């Protein structure tokens, strides 16, 4: 009886170990930036900052407004092709930003914003040069097994509610500061933006059941705190210059409807509302507004957890485990990771220790130079390399 019980326990342990081997988890790190407004240097400073602290990201998402294209004044609240400059200068600026974005992560996506040139709305992701981020506008692409990116650029005009609860579109007067041009919608009004959202929803509905979607837009969903601007100055979080009587709604009702529909979005990254940067929950979706890298000096990070099963067939499920907004000018970690200065005496001791260690290591290498390596050791080495390649980056394993 004891032998039978021991055998049963052994079989149970073996079965449990096999189940553990059939399921593995991986972390997938995403950095989110937005509203760059031509500040290419800010992107390279952020890249250097992340590299100093050995923070590796698998993907970058940019929420639009690569440039700061001025709009002509318009009484209808939405700027069109006739209200924007006819010049290639803004396309050259956008290309410089897209190149800097691509240098920050192995895979980078962006959508055009309300201050980006019109040709970006017609450029598919497949047309992007290899050294630039991919344009995700009206695109749905599979990033890796079970994970997709869906994008929609542009934004309707912001609005505020009157005292009686009715909606009033904010009319923009002519201003000298071109960064205020965002009070126009571009290039779509509310009706056109709703049509575009419906087309995107149809494309998302074709994604296999159980897969997850990262939604990337410029405007956010109306109703989320990340789309509401309470300060009089929408570009500042340090000096908002007072509080509005009614908050300015920079989000889209159409995107509200998209997130409310039963679908598989797990994360929605958007921009536009500079001073409303933050993280919010919208049903099951984590909404991230990274703020403006130029004006509010912020960026976001999102960590996804992939649970990968291998039996009866390989499948992946995804969820958001962490999302946060960070200060791009925070240097508190720089001092923590900097090497402490050594006194001359300690430096001398450390140098002698290194010399002794080097001499001992060299002697050991010489003594083992003639010793034959076992074939089994080499087999273990190759097996370890194979396992590392198989169980590493989710992108490499897809």
From TrEMBL:
Record keyword Signal present: yes
InterPro entries per UniProt: Calcineurin-like_PHP (IPR004843), Metallo-depent_PP-like (IPR029052)
Transmembrane segments: none
Cleaved signal peptide residues: 1-16
Keyword field: Signal
Record domain Calcineurin-like phosphoesterase: where: 29-225
Descriptive protein name: Calcineurin-like phosphoesterase domain-containing protein
Organism name: Aureococcus anophagefferens (Harmful bloom alga)
């Amino acid at each position: 009886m004891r032998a039978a019980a021991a055998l049963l326990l052994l079989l149970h342990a073996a079965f449990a170990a096999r189940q553990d081997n059939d399921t593995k988890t991986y972390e997938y790190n995403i950095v989110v930036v937005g509203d760059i407004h031509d500040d290419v240097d800010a992107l390279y400073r952020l890249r250097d900052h992340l590299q100093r602290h050995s923070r590796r990201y698998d993907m970058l998402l940019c929420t639009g407004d690569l440039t700061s294209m001025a709009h002509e004044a318009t009484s209808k609240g939405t700027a069109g092709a006739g209200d924007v400059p006819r010049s290639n200068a803004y396309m050259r600026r956008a290309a410089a930003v897209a190149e800097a974005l691509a240098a920050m992560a192995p895979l980078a996506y962006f959508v055009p914003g309300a201050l980006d040139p019109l040709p970006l709305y017609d450029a598919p992701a497949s047309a992007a040069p290899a050294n630039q981020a991919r344009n995700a506008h009206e695109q749905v692409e599979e990033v890796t097994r079970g994970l997709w990116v869906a994008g929609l650029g542009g934004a309707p005009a912001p609005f505020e509610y009157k005292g009686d609860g009715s909606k009033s579109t904010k009319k923009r007067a002519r201003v000298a500061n071109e960064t205020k041009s965002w009070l126009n919608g571009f290039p779509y009004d509310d009706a056109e933006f709703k049509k575009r959202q419906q087309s995107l929803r149809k494309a998302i509905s074709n994604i296999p059941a159980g897969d997850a979607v990262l939604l990337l837009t410029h405007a956010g969903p109306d109703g989320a705190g990340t789309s509401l601007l309470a300060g009089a100055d929408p570009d500042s979080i340090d000096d908002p210059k007072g509080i509005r009587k009614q908050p300015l709604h920079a989000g889209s009702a159409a995107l509200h409807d998209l997130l409310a529909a039963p679908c598989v979005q797990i994360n929605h990254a958007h921009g536009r509302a500079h001073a409303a940067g933050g993280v919010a929950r919208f049903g099951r979706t984590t909404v991230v507004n990274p703020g403006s890298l130029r004006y509010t000096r912020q960026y976001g990070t999102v960590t996804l957890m992939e649970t990968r099963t291998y039996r009866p067939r390989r499948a992946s499920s995804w969820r958001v485990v962490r999302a946060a907004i960070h200060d791009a000018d925070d240097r508190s970690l720089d001092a923590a990771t900097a090497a402490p200065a050594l006194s001359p005496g300690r430096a001398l001791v450390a140098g002698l220790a290194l010399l002794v260690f080097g001499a001992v290591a060299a002697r050991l290498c010489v003594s083992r130079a003639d010793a034959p390596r076992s074939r089994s050791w080499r087999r273990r080495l190759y097996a370890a390399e194979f396992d590392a390649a198989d169980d590493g980056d989710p992108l490499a394993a897809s």
